[in-house]
Structures are given as structure tokens and as C-alpha cells.
Amino acid sequence: MASPATCAAAFLAHPPALLDYAAIHSCLLRGDARLSLPLLALLLLLHFRLLAASASVHFTPAVSRLAARLRLSPSMAAATLLALGNGAPDAFASAAALSGPAGMPRAGLAAILSAGAFVSAFAVGAVALIAAPFAVPPAPFARDVFFYLVAASALFYVYLSAEIFLWQAVGLVLFYAFFVGLVFYMDLGGDEAKAASTAAAELQMANGIGRVAMDLPVTVEDRKQQDPALCTVLRKVTEVWEQPIAFVLKLTIPSTLPSEWNKFYICANICLCPLLLLYSFGSFIPLDTRIVFLLPQIRFPIWAVVLFASLCLALSHFLLEKEAPETENTASTLVSFIMSVFWISTMAGELLNCLAAIGVIVDFPPAILGMTVLAWGNSVGDLVADVALARAGQPRIAIAGCFAGPMFNMLVGLGTALVVQTARVYPKAYVLEFHVGIVVAFVFLLLSLMGTLLVVTWARFRVPRFWGYCLMGIYILFTIVSIAIASSSR
Q1: What are all long-range contacts of 477-483, with beta carbons under 8 Å and residues at least 24 apart?
Q2: Strands 295-301 vs 290-293: parallel, antiparallel or unpaired
């Protein structure tokens, strides 16, 4: 049994996290894996559900309305807001991994690559099997695949050098900015710009449907007529699980529709959102930072000042506001977007910490965690969304999303995290931990991208059905090889 001093040190080891899962195992449950593993597994499911609900119920509608208001073309929406919507969970989870304990940076990089291989191979293959043969626009398709191929090749070169400098990390982010600029230039004045808001809204709606379908299995609806009693039980269990999660998210994420206006939730948003945003900047401004407020001789902690100010604003709103607004508020949409990102990033970090604790308890290699659980957990939502688009008669948009999202994860999500890490050690280089499994992931990712570009070009920019089977086979082979390598290198 751990000593009280050891337990106290464990609980204080990682202050940015909401919970210290290693301390829960070693101290609270006295190192008994029979108790800690079920509890951590339950917490893992809770984090997954919070992350998915934040993305599907709140983040997706906010992005959809922002795209409509900004009148973005489908290509521009896919390269910016849609890529952020699909890739936020993966990007934040992998970014959290780079700043995590030993072994987890490798898991984060493995997750980015594995998620990219999953979407660009398995998801593209699924879309091809459902909708093929179908034509794709030559210039946008070649542009998206080529840029993703160049980005993956450049990162592979950097990884083989075993170190990355600040200018290289900044270059990754700027490369995606250049890609967005090129998309904007190619779309400028085109037909896509005329139907921008409608297409963006439809795409986000289909994306949201896909993510909701991932969270609520369709088998419940399929069995509704066959077994009403079982369906009722499953619905009750789902409601018990969903209600607390929905309540917490409504307290902290404002609704953007006038029809969903609720004075209690709006006041709670005004009170809690500033405090949560202050918490998210805790690494720059500690919560216990003391400042002068009202009384010149007394310094109050900044969290208390923010809480007092937000409480006053919430009380004023409760007393003055009597009716719901007649139109949608752009400010509420923007705040909803920001708070959804906060929950996605926070739950991604908690998810990663929980996975790390489980990996330590069962002696599971971090590379396998990154290549399986962490990569699949968020990429399944992209798969369901892309399949839903293909079934709805939009395979071209589905294919575009299969490349924009993973490229965003690699260049912006991972790139931003690398900028932070390289800036900390500047002018020295940030050392990249080598693992043969990551090399294999790079090889398979490049293979799937080059194969798709060559085959579709050879077929005169039509996606053939046989290539869908080939891509799925490539991903299955990649998974088998990766797990075998990770298991042999323990």
C-alpha cells in the first residue's frame, strides 16, 4: 500500500488534469487492478461520451451556422470549419499526448498517423463500396490528395531525422494555411461560391447525423418492432446515461437557437463559461494568481474575481431578460463554438490520461494504445459521417472530407503541439522518439494516398468499386502488422 506522502505527491503530479488516474489506482483503490480497471473503463466510456456529445450535439451545429453566415464554399468549409469539426477530437488528444508522460508523445503521433490511415484507407474504401463508381472533380481531388501526400512525406522525413526544430514545426502549420489559401483561390468566383451556405449546412448536418448515429447504435431502432420490451430497457439505460451529460453540457455551452432559449441555462452559461475559459488558460495564468479588485489593500485570487463578475452579469440577465430573442445571436454561436472546443480539448486530455493509466496497469505498449483505441475512438465518427454522406448521394463531398480532416489533424493539430514543444527547447531541437511501428504507419499512409491518386487518375477521375476493397485490405494489413510489431517490441 502506498504511503500518504506518496499518494499526496501522486495526486499533485499532473495539476492540469481533472483527475489523477494513477493515484486512483495506487492510492484510492490500493493498487487492486480488479477494482481499478472496471472503474477506469467506466471513466473511459464517460470521457468518450462527453467528447462525442460535445462534438455532435453542440460543436457541429455551431460550425454549421458559422459556415452558413460566412458563406463558405463546400471546399473552403471542408478545409477549415469541417476539418476542425471532424479533426478536433483527434487533434486535441494527440496534442495532449505530446505534453504527456514518457511514452505518450509516441502514442499521440501514432494516433495521428493511424487515424489518418483509417480515414484515408478504410473510410474511403467504405465510401467507394457504397457509391462507386462515381466521378470526382479532377482539380479539387488531385489538390487534396497531393497536398496530404506532400505533408505526410515531409513529416516522415522530419521523423526519420529524429528531431524537429521550431521553424519546421511552424512550417507544418503554414503549409496548411497555404492549402486553405489555394482552396479559396480555386473556389473564388466558381459555382461553389453561389451555393456556399446551403452546401456547408447540408454537409455539417450529415456530419452531425453520422456522429449521433455513432453514439446511438441503429440496432436499437432496427429491433424496435421486433422486441419492444428490450428496446424500452435500452432506451431507459441510454436516458440514464445521457441526461447528466446533456445537463452538464447545457450548463456550459449556450444554445444558438431562439426556440431552445432557457433563462436558467443562459444564466448558468454566463456564470460558468468565463471560469472554465480561465481554467483552460491555467498554464499561462494560474487560478490562484492574486490581483487587486475593488479593495486596494486586498488581493483576491483571479478565479474569485472572475466568478464574482460573472455572477453579477448572470444575476443582471436573470432580472432584466424576460423573453427569448427573436433571431439567432451570432455572439452566442461563437461562444458555443469556443466552449465546445474547450470540452473537446479537456475530455481529450482526460481520455489520454485515463488510457495511459490503463496501459500502465495492464503493461500495454503505448504504441498499441495510439494505433488502436485512441485512433479508432474518434475516427469512427468520421467513418459514419462519410458513409452517411455517400448514402445520401454526396460521395464527392464524403471523399473530400476523408482527406481534409486527417490533413488538418497532422498539420494543425500535431503541428501546433510541436510548435509549443519546440518553442520550449528553442534554439535546440525537440527530440522525436523513434519506433518502427510509426515508420510502418507512415509507409501505409503514403501507400494508400499514392494508390488512391494513381488509381482514380487512371480511371479518369472516377472511383472504382474494386479500389474500395483494396483500401480496406490495406488498412487491415496495416493494423495486423502494427500490433505485431508493437507486441514484439515490449
Answers
A1: 477/444, 478/117, 478/121, 478/440, 478/441, 478/444, 479/371, 479/372, 481/440, 481/444, 482/114, 482/367, 482/368, 482/371, 482/437, 482/440, 482/441, 483/368, 483/371, 483/372
A2: antiparallel
Peptide bond into 427 cis (omega under 30): yes
Model-wide pTM > 0.85: no
DSSP for 373-399 reads: IIHHHHHHHHHHHHHHHHHTT-HHHHH
pLDDT, position 152: 92
Distances 77 to 44, 80, 157, 203, 290 between C-alpha atoms, Å = 32, 5, 30, 9, 42
Q: For the chain, how many residues are written?
A: 490
Q: Any idea what DSSP says for residue 300?
A: E
E strand or H helix that includes residue 291: strand 290-293
Q: How far apart are the C-alpha atoms of 233 and 469, rounded to whole Å?
A: 38
With beta carbons less than 8 A apart as the criterion, state whether 47 and 347 touch. Answer: yes
Residue range 257-287, pLDDT digits in tens: 777 788 888 888 898 888 888 887 776 677 7
d(CA 194, CA 180): 19
Of the CA atoms within 13 Å of residue 482, those in its CB half-sphere come to 31
Cβ neighbours, 10 Å, residue 253 = 28
Are 108 and 415 a contacting pair, CB within 8 Å?
Answer: no
Cell match 505530446: residue?
A: 98
Residue listed under C-alpha cell 500500500: 1
pLDDT single digits (tens) 81-125: 666 656 655 556 556 666 655 555 666 677 778 778 888 888 888
CA-to-CA distance for 3 and 27, rounded, in angstroms? Answer: 8
